[in-house]
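Tutorial, part two.
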Amino acid sequence: MEGVPDEDNLGLWLAFLQGVSVDYFQKGRVLTVQAPTIAEDTTKHIAAYMAGFLRRSAGMIWYKRRAFVPKMVMMQGTDWTFSMKNSVVRRDYENDVAGTEVFLCVVTDTRAESTYQVRKIAAILGRHDLLHDFMIALVGKAPSNLDQGLHFKVAGANSDSDLPAVEVCVLSYERKEFDQFETRARDATCVED
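Running the prediction step on this input gives:
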């Protein structure tokens, strides 16, 4: 059959497809497919740490619940559907239902992807009343025109090294700051916004 990978490559294709992330925007009938990145490897550790913290937080509503990180979550609004892998904490393992997300984490490796993910998170915020926090991190190769005033070197690094400069940008917001974030995200055209 044409277009179907042979048995030798089938495992590679299945691994590739498992790592793909898909977002769908009904309004423009736009399907965004992102190839596998390192993001899932990073977000699963951050989300697992947050879930563990919530489970151990005596005196909070989480204490008697079993916060957990599902492998895949499909988040839906009236105009969009987003897939999120190993990056969401839901509040109760016993009651695993949509809308019970309490924490989101997104890691990107390019500025363009960061801007896209910021807009995606802004769309999600209005639909999830239980969401308390989210984090977006950009870890990637620094652009050559990066403002040197914002550039830091690792202590002990060799200044004539052939290693590329790396930039790290982290956004972290709590519920009380969501309105401020949504306003900034709506007008954002680049990472600096």
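DSSP finds four helices and eight strands in the chain. In part three we will examine how such features are distributed along the chain.
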